[in-house]
Amino acid sequence: MIYFDNAATTFKKPKEVTDAINYALVSYTNSGRGAYKAALDSGRMVYEARVKLASFFGACDPSRVIFTSNATEALNITLFGLFHTGDHVISTVTEHNSVLRPLYKLESTKGVGLDFVGIDECGRLKYDEFEKYIRSDTKAIVINHISNVSGEIADIEYVGKIAKKHNLYLIVDASQSAGSINIDMNKTGIDILCFTGHKSLFGPGGTGGIVINSDIMLDTFKVGGSGVQSFNKNQPSEYPTRLEAGTLNIMGIAGLSAGIDFINKTGKANIHKKEMQLVKRFYNGIKDIDGIRFYFDKESLENEPENIRHGSIVSFNLKKIPSADLADCLGEDYDIAIRAGAHCAPLIHKAFHTEKEGIARFSFSYFNTEEEVDETIKAIKEISLNYR
Predict the structure, then answer these.
(1) What span, in angstroms and rounded, lies between the C-alpha atoms of 150 and 156?
(2) Does the structure show a pLDDT above 80 at 388?
(3) Is the alpha carbon torsion for 368, 372, 378, 384 positive or negative?
(4) Residue 361 forms beta bridges with which residues?
(5) CB atoms within 10 A of CB 68
């Protein structure tokens, strides 16, 4: 199978990741629940993973790296733990339902006010709208770093300056960017970063987290076993225990930690360059197909791969072929896996006017090859000629 659905999850993982998971299965037990070697080794591994992630994202305090099961849980903990009645939130139409649905629930249950910054025809954010939407009760900006539909990268540093100017929190959904491009929370002014482990961080499913880089104290999302303060009727107030009730995913965290090691060893810049080489090769191979419509800023791909500012996503539709049919043809006739449809991001599809037909999304990974790209280009051209 040729796999180009890496924006959903990376299919091929570094050997270091599977080795770390296997080692954890036979060597570690429950972190923070005992004073014997396997428990202590597990606790040290978890702490080292927090330190790696804090450094990886340019944050200050490893104790404010909170492990979750995925980005959706991280975003739910953050949004429900921060916003209350009387607050106003600015977000964007590029958001995934992992942001939209919590915000809509906060709107309906707590009266939280919402405004969404729009995009232009290429999927670029209308940055002038951020300050237009700021009100006296605005508490935060919640923004998707890389769109999982278009691959457009938001200018977080610019938005961070707006947030700081108006004393707002900046919350970033880094589901698509964590691991694929450099993120420096201190430099960009990010207060809370939510990430998932199973995409560009090359970790296993069931991993993710929150990185808090300010004095925010989020409300507890769940309470229960903590391994400490057992006679306290309340969940301990300190991070990370404040938000980590119950047993951690030790094997998953071990794999995620190994994924970080692989990225650090390989280099984020080298990973991004390889992915942009594939993106550019793919785009150049299909751009002249009759009736093709792309959903991103094509001019960004004119740069050399190392200077391209784009996610590893190419999204398009062919005039006569519904996106679902294209995905089915590629899967059934060529064993090529892609994603078609709405991608859990309804507002950006409304902005692109693709609610009915969806969009065909091809997403690339460091482990994809030029040969796979060339085979896929050939397949798309054959389908476009033969489709009836």
Answers:
(1) 17
(2) no
(3) negative
(4) 315, 339
(5) 26
Q: Is 20 helix (H, G, I), strand (E, B) or coil?
A: helix
CATH code for 2-10+267-386?
3.90.1150.10
32 pLDDT above the threshold of 80: no
What does the H/E/C string look like for 302-334? HCCHHHCCCCCEEEEEECCECHHHHHHHHHHHH
CATH topology for 15-265 is: Aspartate Aminotransferase; domain 2 (3.40.640)
Q: What is the pTM of this model?
A: 0.95
CA distance 226 to 104: 31
- Which residue type, as a one-letter code, is found at position 248? L
Q: What is the mean pLDDT of the chain?
A: 96
Q: Which CA distances in Å does 369 have to 25, 315, 366, 374?
A: 32, 19, 8, 9
Which pLDDT score is estimated for 354?
97
The predicted-structure confidence for 103-156, as pLDDT tens digits, reads as follows 999 999 999 999 999 999 999 999 999 999 999 999 999 999 999 999 999 999
Exposed, middle or buried, 337 (CB in 10 Å: 0-12/13-18/19+)?
Answer: middle
